[in-house]
Amino acid sequence: MWLKRAAKRNSRLAYAPLSLLAAWFKLDLLKPVPNVGGEQSILTEATRIETLRKAGIEVPLILAKTPQALLLADAGTSTQPAVTLLEKLKSTDDPEHIDQTLTRSIRALNCVHKRDCYLSEGFARNILVTEEKTIFIDFETDPGRVHTPIDCMVRDWYCFIFSLYGKLYKSPTQCERLTPALLEGLNNAHQDVRERFCEILPKLLRLKRFPFKLLGSDGRKISITLQALTVLNKKL
Q: CB–CB of 98/173 below 8 Å?
């Protein structure tokens, strides 16, 4: 079981750089979704989990809730523990197993969108996998309060992509398998989502003009991801 307590509100200053980039490049998709914290974040998470569960999306089961906390069922079992998508991918160098894991997680993401739903933060750390299921977690924010439904779905894709390339760039086998898996997944995505993704991508690639690789490890991750997105842009 997991106990999630009401957290403090994030400082608005934390969102300033992303807000500036969104305005500068006219990319509404980059507008941050503030985490207001406190009881509101608990209410948002409970509401979002219940909405997604009703739509048939794999999310944690709420065992109990109060205005200050949620008690969630464990996503895995004693025989099939759940691990993050990133942990699962890094646990093997077998291309077949990597392909299977990527394919399942990408299909699960497309399934969310095809049911007219979206995640909150579609990062690899918020995707749990067992041998049979892909489970989405962490719903303290609702992007639908800031973005259109289609942009929320496209945002899921970009969160997913940045979190994977940013963490796997030192794992050559995983990185090699990632691009073809993403291409297949995007080609199978909801048509409106794919078209919006492709519309935004060239604008996002303008960020390549900045020397991110000189800004430490985080900057290097962004630079590597932008290079990978350039390849996707050419093949989509």
A: yes
* DSSP letter for each residue of 107-133: HHHHHHHHTT---S---GGGEEE-SS-
Torsion of CA 163, 164, 167, 168, to 10 degrees: -170
Q: What is the pLDDT of residues 177-212, one digit of tens each?
A: 999 999 999 999 999 999 999 999 998 898 888 887
Burial of 79 (0-12, 13-18, 19+ CB in 10 A): exposed
Q: How far apart are CA 102 and CA 110, in angstroms?
A: 12
The interaxial angle of helices 172-187 and 191-204, nearest 10 deg, is 130
Average pLDDT of span 62-82: 87
For 21-51, write each residue's pLDDT tens digit.
Answer: 677 777 787 787 878 888 899 999 999 999 9
Helix (H, G, I), strand (E, B) or coil at 3: strand
The residue type of 188 is N
Query: Which of helix, strand or coil describes residue 51?
Result: helix
Give the C-alpha separation, 212 to 127, whole Å: 27
By C-alpha distance, which of 208, 203, 202 is closest to 226?
A: 208
Cβ atoms of 25 and 209 within 8 Å: the answer is no
User: Tell me, what DSSP letter sits at residue 1?
Assistant: -
For residues 141 and 31, is the Cβ–Cβ distance under 8 A? no
Tell me, what's the pLDDT at 62?
A: 94
